[in-house]
Amino acid sequence: MINRLETAWETPSAGEVPSPDLVIQLDRIHKTYHLGDIEVHALRGISLGIRRGEFVAIMGPSGSGKSTMMNVIGCLDRPTKGHYLLEGADVSKVDKAGLADIRNKRIGFVFQSFNLVPRTSALENVELPMVYAGVPAAERSRRARAALAEVGLADRERSMPNQLSGGQQQRVAIARALVNNPSLILADEPTGALDTRTSIEVMEIFQRLNRDRNLTVIVVTHEQDIAQYANRIIQFRDGRLRRDFLVENRKSASDVLTQLLPEADGEDNDDFGDSK
Ligand code: ADP
Ligand code: MG
Which atom, in ligand 1's list, is nearest to the CA of 236? Predict the structure, then answer.
């Protein structure tokens, strides 16, 4: 049983040879944290490949290594051991400034707590990654407006984060993640602070971006319901891949939202037993 689980990562996409189709290739990635004398093995040999246009949900209990893996993939943290190829390039050979550039241009981050800059308008928040990327002001504003429109917030450009609902703030964060045209969106528990309907609205945006732009999306979630919007689910346990499988009968968020509409004031399942 344990053997079967431990080897379950060997999907057809796993591999060590650079392939143009693979946005992410992880080869025996380890991450060990040192806390005084104690070693914490957050990742214990992760090998997997993610193809362009995949929509992956990462699941697993708290402490199983999901965020550590997202940090490695997002070039926020380096692995202790192993190789990571991002779009075919070995990231371990890139210096700090190079990593910052990769994060800015190729990866869009979305977090549970939105991480918007306070007292700064939605438009300016969305412009920020372009400021770092050196995009001229007129183009910044044009692209930020387009991104806000894409997430349904064309009329909230001037709003400050504290004037927006949680769902609206997360949509601003998604617009911000998009403006530099990344090849990859990384979202760590993006619906963790949102009610059910708003969570589905956020998943609808991710599904649309995934479909229309062929954007690769990786979402960490502990909610089975949310994972069903992905086309592949990867389960972690104790720093290892426990399961890696394709979603059968993947849910369409826009269909689910249409079905919710007629009884918007009826059934309210905001507090469905959310375990952690
Ligand atoms: P998850 O996101 O699945 O809840 P994490 O990746 O955050 O799990 O954590 C995996 C393990 O690594 C946990 O045991 C956690 O305590 C540990 N860990 C994560 N980040 C650090 C850190 N910066 N320093 C020390 N230990 C850490
Ligand atoms: Mg986490």
Answer: 3
